[in-house]
Amino acid sequence: MKTHHYIFLTALLFVIVFYDQDIGLNLGILGIVYAVLTLFRTPEKNKTRTLYVLFTTSILSGVAFAWFGDFTSFIAVASSLLLLGYKSKNRRLKILFLIPVFMINCCTSFCRFFSFDEWLPKKNVPGLWQKTLAFILIPLVLVSVFFGIYSAGSNHFAAFFTDYELDLNIWQVFCLSVLGFFIAFNYWNYAVEKLIYKNNHVLDNDFRKDSRVPKATYSFLDLAAERMSGVISFVLLNVLLVFFIITYNYEQFYEAIKTPVQLSEETHERVNAVIMSIVMAILVIMFYFKAGFNFDPKAGLLKILAKIWIFLNAILVVSAALKNYEYIVNYAFTYKRLGVFAFLLLSLVGLVLTYIKIQKQKRNIFLINTMIWFFYGTVLACSYFNWGGFITSQNMKRKDFAVNYHVTSINFSEKALLKYADEKNDQKLKKTLQDKVKNETSKTFLSKIIYYHTIK
After folding, report:
1. Mind giving me the DSSP string for 32-53?
2. Nearest-CA neighbor of 402 among 323, 324, 327, 333?
3. pLDDT-derived band of residue 38, with 50, 70 and 90 as boundaries?
4. Average pLDDT of 34-63?
5. What does the alpha-carbon distance between residue 13 and residue 87 come to, in Å, rounded to a whole number?
6. How many C-beta atoms surround the C-beta of residue 105 within 10 A?
7. Nearby residues of 382 by Cβ (< 8 Å), 6 or more positions away
8. DSSP H helical ranges for 212-334
9. Which of 41, 220, 295, 375 is the most exposed place for a label (fewest CB within 10 A)?
C-alpha cells in the first residue's frame, strides 16, 4: 500500500471506532492497528531490535488502554506510537528530535496537505479508485463544505434538511473525519527537515576523535587552573554533603515524633530537597566533565572525588526512600507516596548514568538521551500495572482503613473494595460499587473499559 492508502484507511477507521462512542476500547484497538500497520510498512533495514521493542510496547500500551482507559495509559499509547513511527523511518535520528519533528509537521500540515504530489500518486489512478475519487469523494467534500456555509447563513435553507430525521450526526462525522485525517496524515506522512539531519551528530553519546584532545574550556582559565578548581570544589562539596547527610538523617529518624500533617509537609519538603540536590549534583558534574576535559590524563583525583560525591548522593537518595517507606508504614499508601519512590528511583538511575558518563568518557548529552528511555519506561510501568488496586489491597490490612477515600480518590479499586464489603457485610458500600460497575459495563462495545468486565 502507498502512503495515501494508510492515511485514508486509518482516518476512516478513526471515524468508525469513535462515532457516537466514549473513549475506551476503541482507542486501544486503534493504537494496535497503527502499530501493526507501522511494522508492516517499515523497510527491512529499519527493523532493528529497538523497533521491535517499541512495537511490543505499543501493542501492550494499546491493551493497557483498552483495559484501564485512564490518562496514564493514554500517554503510554501516544508516546509508544510516536516513538515507533519515528524509528520506523529514522533509525539513526536521536529521540530528542522527536518532539520538534512532530510539532513542525503539525504546524505545517495544512500547507503539506496541498502538496498533493508529495503524498498522492503522481500518475493517473486507473479504474474504480479514479472514478470514486472524481465522481464521489471530491463532489461530496465540496457539497459538505458549502452545505455548512449555506446552513449557517439561512435558517430556511437549513430547515429543508433538518425537518427530515436522519440517524446520522453529520457534524460529528465531519469533526471526526478532520481529526482522524489530521492524525493519520501527520503520522504516515511526516517530513524531517534537512537541518535536523545535519545536526543529528550534535546529540551523539560519544566524542569524536578530534574532540578528545584535553584543552581548557574557557580562555580566562588554563587547563591546570580549571582542573584544580574542580578538585577544590568537589572536596568542599563532599565535606558539605557529609554534614548534610548526618543532619538530614538525624532530623528524619531521631527527632521527636510529629503530627501527621507536620510529618507529611516535612517529608515532601525533604524529598524535594533531595531531588533538587541530585539534579544540581549531576549538573555540576556535567559542568566539569565536558568536551576534551574528559580525556585529561591528570584529572584522576578529580574523577575520584566526583565518584565519591555520586556515592554520597546515592546514600542521600536511600535515606529519603527509607523515610518515605516509614511514612507509608505509619500512614498508608497513596499515589503521591508511590510517586516519591518513582522520582527517587529515577534520581538514582541518573546518578548511575553520571558514573558511567565519567567512567566511559561519554558526552553530557548521553545522560539526556538515556534518561529519556528511563522516563518512557516509567510511563509504561505506571500504565501496565493497577496501582489503585495495589494501594487499596495493601491499605485494607490497616485498622485505620479509610473506605470513602478509596472509593472516591483511588482508581480501579473496585475488586478489592467489593471483597472488603463482603468481609465487613457492608451492603451500602457493595451497592455503590455494583452500581458503578454496572454503569461502566452497560456502555456500548467500543466505549467499554475491559477492567470492569473482569469484576464479578
Report:
1. HHHHHHHHHHS-GGG--HHHHH
2. 333
3. very high
4. 95
5. 23
6. 18
7. 72, 76, 342
8. 223-253, 260-288, 300-331
9. 220
- What is the 3 state secondary structure string of 133-181? HHHHHHHHHHHHHHHHHHHHHCHHHHHHHHCCCCCCCHHHHHHHHHHHH
Among the listed residues 303, 295, 293, 286, the one whose alpha carbon sits nearest the alpha carbon of residue 225:
293
Which single residue is written with the C-alpha cell 541518573? Answer: 350
Q: Terminus-to-terminus CA distance in the chain, angstroms?
A: 44
Q: Which residues of 115-153 are buried (b: 16+ CB within 10 A; e: fewer)?
A: eeeebeeeeeeeeeeeeeeeeeeeeeeeeeeeeeeebee
Distances (CA, A) of 378 to 73, 113, 207, 228: 12, 36, 29, 39
User: What whole-number distance in Å separates Cα of residue 415 and Cα of residue 270?
Assistant: 35
Angle made by CA atoms 33, 38, 40, in degrees to the nearest 5: 95
Gap between the Cα atoms of 383 and 27, Å rounded: 14
pTM, 2 dp: 0.84
* Grid cell of 455 as nine digits: 469484576
C-alpha grid cell, residue 290: 565536558
C-alpha cell at 233: 570544589
**Nearest residue to 7 via CA among 104, 101, 85:** 85
Q: How many CB atoms lie within 10 A of CB 26?
A: 24
User: What is the C-alpha R_g of the chain?
Assistant: 29
Q: Give the residue among 343, 423, 383, 18 at the shortest CA–CA distance from 180.
A: 18
Specify the long-range contacts of residues 288-291, CB closer than 8 Å, at least 24 apart. Answer: 288/230, 288/233, 288/234, 289/357, 289/358, 289/364, 290/217, 290/363, 290/364, 291/207, 291/211, 291/215, 291/217
**Cα-Cα-Cα-Cα dihedral sign, residues 224, 226, 229, 233:** negative
What is the rounded distance in angstroms from the CA atom of residue 73 to the CA atom of residue 27? Answer: 10
Cα(33)–Cα(177) distance, integer angstroms: 17
Say how far apart CA 115 and CA 129 lie, in whole Å: 20
Give dist(CA 238, CA 254) in Å, integer. 23
pLDDT 10s digits, 340-383: 999 999 999 999 999 998 888 888 889 999 999 999 999 999 99
| Three-class SS state of 398 | coil
Task: Take residue 339 and report the three cell numbers written for it.
Answer: 510517586
Examine the pLDDT at 438 and tell me if it is beyond 90: yes
Q: Quickly count: other Cβ atoms within 10 Å of residue 398's Cβ.
A: 12
Largest CA distance in the chain: 87
Three cell numbers written together for 333: 499508601
User: Strand, coil or helix: what is 61?
Assistant: helix
